[in-house]
Design goal:
Blueprint (H helix, E strand, L loop, with lengths): L8 H25 L6 E5 L5 H10 L3 E6 L2 H7 L7 E5 L12 E7 L8 H9 L2 E16 L3 H16 L7 H6 L6 E13 L1 H15 L3 H6 L2 H15 L8 E12 L3
Parallel strand pairs: 1-2, 1-4, 2-3, 4-5
Antiparallel strand pairs: 5-7, 6-7
Helix pairs in contact: 1-2, 1-7, 7-9
Length: 259
């Protein structure tokens, strides 16, 4: 599994900002979608561990494990481990998962980076106990009239498409058939307005990573990327006033059933 935005220190700082930005929407989703009294929960693609601690603190499973295949991110996550929270090196596109089967699996903004999401969801389902739940949070849409944000997202989407991924994976996931081991219990979209300076800061950090991507270097002039970089930095710093950016987040709940 390769993370399109990298696993550098810059990428980790970006994930910290992302975690803060979407903490409340994720927390609400978890509370509404999960059972209580969980024994084992796992955060899929945990990165530096922000979403893992959100999952553990919200649902209070007996034990919560963060899984990721990045040593760099796990070096940041492991010092935050506790008696009830641990981190393991594992590629979440391969099974079986360590320490499973689980009562609950949580995936936030991971499937957008993975090819063949239908097969990945099916594999995840097999890591659950019967009656266990898979909770997926992904981007349905990002809406803004501002041309700087629009230009950024067009390049980002083109890069992900070239890699066989999708920025707006939410509609794709909503349309796929349930795998044999899973039954869909809910699929809804939540609107989350994000202040423009915060959105620009996340985008600016992303750009700092993927501006060096081979696809971007082949298809976009360095001067255009430099202009986009400067415009995003100006919005992030508050020098340019812009209205909020609206994220639509697809929330999917699937439950493991008898095969």
């Amino acid at each position: 599994m390769t993370y399109a935005f990298g696993d550098t220190d810059l990428a980790a700082r970006r994930l910290a900002l992302l975690a803060e930005t979407f903490a409340q929407s994720s927390r609400t989703f978890l509370v509404e979608a999960a059972h209580t009294g969980l024994r084992l929960a796992a955060d899929l693609g945990c990165g530096p561990g922000y979403s893992t601690h959100l999952l553990a603190g919200t649902l209070e499973a007996a034990h919560t494990t963060g899984l990721d295949n990045s040593d760099s991110f796990l070096d940041l996550a492991r010092p935050t481990a506790s008696e009830t929270v641990s981190f393991r090196l594992h590629d979440i596109t391969t099974g079986p998962f360590p320490c499973g089967p689980y009562d609950l699996l949580f995936s936030r903004f991971e499937l957008t980076h993975l090819q063949r999401p239908e097969a990945v969801v099916e594999l995840w389902g097999r890591q659950l106990e019967v009656g266990g739940r898979l909770l997926i949070e992904e981007v349905e849409y990002i809406e803004t009239p501002h041309p700087v944000f629009t230009a950024y997202m067009e390049i980002n989407q083109a890069m992900l498409t070239e890699q066989g991924n999708s920025l707006y994976i939410g509609p794709v996931l909503d349309a796929i058939l349930d795998p044999p081991s899973l039954k869909r219990r809910a699929s809804n979209v939540q609107s989350v307005p994000v202040p423009a300076d915060r959105a620009a800061a996340m985008f600016h950090m992303n750009l700092g990573v993927w501006r060096h991507n081979d696809f971007v270097r082949r298809n976009f002039a360095p001067s255009d990327i430099d202009d986009l970089d400067g415009s995003l930095a100006a919005i992030a710093s508050g020098q340019t006033a812009v209205g909020p950016v609206e994220w639509g987040l697809r929330h999917i709940v699937m439950e493991r059933i008898d095969p």
